[in-house]
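ok so I'm stuck.
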Amino acid sequence: MSRVYNFSAGPAVLPEEVLKEAADEMLDYRGTGVSVMEMSHRSKAFAGIIQEAEADLRELMHIPDNYKVLFLQGGASQQFAMIPMNLMKNRVADYIVTGQWAKKAYQEAQKYGKVNKIASSEDKTFSYIPDCSDLPVSPDADYVYICENNTIYGTKFKTLPNTKGKTLVADVSSCFLSEPVDVTKYGLIYGGVQKNIGPAGVVIAIIREDLITDDVLPGTPTMLKYKTHADAGSLYNTPPAYGIYICGKVFKWLKVQGGLEAMKERNEKKAALLYDFLDQSSLFKGTVRKEDRSLMNVPFVTGDEKLDAKFVEEAKKAGLENLKGHRTVGGMRASIYNAMPYEGVQALVDFMAQFEKENL
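replied:
not stuck anymore, here's the structure
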């Protein structure tokens, strides 16, 4: 069978080169006689895999020495509790709610202290990013939290919020490694890898060392302390070994592509191709304020639910998979992550143009 163009929001498309390389090594990883799936996480071979993965990620993102890189489990959703457990010293935190995942994080944090919603875009179905240049940041807030790219709604912070000196915590699950980032602007930056980096099951957290302490909320489980994992080099317990191995291969693929500067350029070209079509279309329209549009997730609608359903069904027959919008918003959504080739977006735009001719 031939590969389709997979526009899934996550688990999502991975580079074919990575998948082929992993397939070649499936039964015998570099002469060890075993698959990485069977390999002890305490083995010399796996130590090489995880150490090389971290080194390549540090190089790609220019991560300073005073930040730890942790390979964790539990999905980004587990971080919704882990963050306040570890960082909420004053039991106060400020949240900017720009989508479903930020909203869930905000709700979870309320179990651990006073949580202030200092900005939100829920009034317009999260279709924009609010002005965050002069927010009512709480004087005693331990951190300010954002979800930087909103997978469901297709918005992206183009300018980070003014946290007025407070630690910035960001969920970057759906824009991870899509463009250069200044890690020093964050206290903690994290994301599930299943959207833009690897298979489901791994969360990468990049944390400034001064935030990793034993001073956590009473009752915090050992497994939910960042210090537990930092002290053990992400090997406190059996990690998601195969997922980390694939992430490592994606990091190497990104380096071959030219790094994050090159990826940003490619991603901007892909997104422009689709947004330009949406802006001139008589049938389809984007749902996000132009200045807040994501490079990774592009939601759009026809305005007719039956026509939306027809589009998704016919697109699938044309080899364009997973274009149905999230169940909470409907319509369509094209997730065009790093591994989605320009040709895939071109195929989508060509199909949309043909569909428009036939259905107007």
